[in-house]
Amino acid sequence: CSLNFLKNPRLLAYPRVNLFSNIFNTQYIIFNINVKFVDKVDKSDYIRQRTFLEEGIYLSTPVDTHGKPYNRGLLIAVLLVGTFCTVLNQTILTTAFPTLMKDFDITTSTVQWLTTGFMLVNGIMIPVSAWLSSRISTKWLYLSAMAIFEVGTIICWTAPNFGFLLAGRLIQAVGVGVTMPLLQTIMLSIDRKSVV
Question: How far apart are CA 12 and CA 59, in angstroms?
């Protein structure tokens, strides 16, 4: 890699982490017009396409790991709405405790297991999701977590007794424990400029 950007103002140097040249203790990647490059992020390769006009103006076209373009705004909206709905489910049930105690004929200490069990499984799944995200594609991991959450919701909705309701809540917690940290991971990986 040469230092052509010092001689030619049409080439653009963009600050990045540990890749090509180290100039004045700041690392740079030298780009030319319509170049694809590979960044090392979290031990995975991400291919991004950068397009530059002749004047050096930066136009960003987000692409996924397979080089296909995607709508960043729609992705963020889907992630935020989906994760918000799952996280809201953590505490929303507490207002229904008196009704559940009456319908299932259970005590206060028993009905509180719906929230306690949910939080326990959720707390276990948060560190496990880091391990899962290093082995499974984030797209499929997020979709699987949302599917697991939906299965738990259906079980809770059709629960004939307290045991089924508790099982459904624990299944929901598996999905929520994966979606919460995964949202942050995806949000940081789709816009690398905020990480550097």
Answer: 12
3-state secondary structure of 13: strand
| Coil/strand/helix, residue 49 | strand
Q: Read off the tokens for 102.
A: 């009456």
The 10s digit of each residue's pLDDT in 9-41 is: 444 444 444 434 334 433 334 343 333 444 444
pTM exceeds 0.70, yes or no: no
Is 185 in contact with 141 (CB distance < 8 Å)? no
Closest CA to 98 of 87, 113, 112, 117: 112
pLDDT digits (tens, 9 = 90+) for 161-180: 999 999 999 999 999 999 99
Q: Which string of DSSP letters, residue by residue, matches 131-147?
A: HHHTTS-HHHHHHHHHH
For the sheet containing 44-52, what is the strand order? 35-41, 44-52, 58-61
Interatomic CA distance for residues 108 and 102, integer angstroms: 10
State both tokens at 70. 């995607």
